[in-house]
Amino acid sequence: MSTKDKVLKILEENRDIHMSGESIALQLGVSRTAVWKAVKNLKNDGHNISSVTNRGYKLDNSSDKLDKWAIINYLDSEIKESDVRVYETIDSTNTEAKRLLNSENLSNFTVLVSDEQTAGRGRRGKTFKSPKGTGVYFSIVFFPKEDFSYNSFDLVTIKAAVSIVKAIEKTTDKKPEIKWVNDIFLNHKKICGILTEADIDFESKKVHSIVTGIGINFTTEFIDELSPIAGSLYAENLLRSELVAEVINEFYKALYYKPDEEILSEYKSHSLLLGRYVNFELNGTKYEAIAKDINEKGNLIVQTDDSKLMTLSSGEVSVRGQF
BPL/LPL catalytic domain: which residues (predicted)? Predict the structure, then answer.
């Protein structure tokens, strides 16, 4: 680890106080000049660091540059040792995760975070707009247990959706809703999308690895064709690194500690579809039906006007009259 990274780690771990150059130098076993140079380089990288005579250095409360140590600082103790990798820009964190899975032995719960995506991806080949400095774009790589059922694959996305909602509610006063299966809405506008992908042996149905990608519009302004439907979180006094970490914390608990019944109950309580008429297409036929329930596999149960029940395992649905 470079001296610059070590200095940043100390500043992130002590955000509430000033750290003198002398104390940092003693901790790291380097000269005060080396610390000064590291701070200068961090400022050039975009970190807002105040320097006060006789007090030392301190990250400004509004300093919101994504970095590994900021994220780790907010992680629960059980996962603080997770492999967190932060990029300035990348094509897609999900795509990078797949490349790494083919070239490295990644540890469970590896997290890839980027300040920008040039080729962000959504479900069904859609693009996800990912401009620099205004959102959080990250992927979590994990290896499911031997008894993981491919038939319950939608539950992973459902667990991610609940994790995002709970993280937002924990860090803000906002009340987001979930549009089955993978979109988070706030004030009738989409602020987040989820893309879950798996490496599967289709003969044995064994799932080797899963990548869950999450993109949250933090302060993104939309001035194009997405403007009527896309929105942003706009949360004051919330750092992007803190939100990323809280989502990771909640997702870890959802995967390894919370029973599926609890997750589904939370998902349903935040659903903006249940009880409403929805439009969807299945096998080339267009339907209108009432969203009735979400089953134990994460499938949407709908009822047509002739009382026929249908089960949707994936696909696009829209709410009549609003979305």
Answer: 78-259
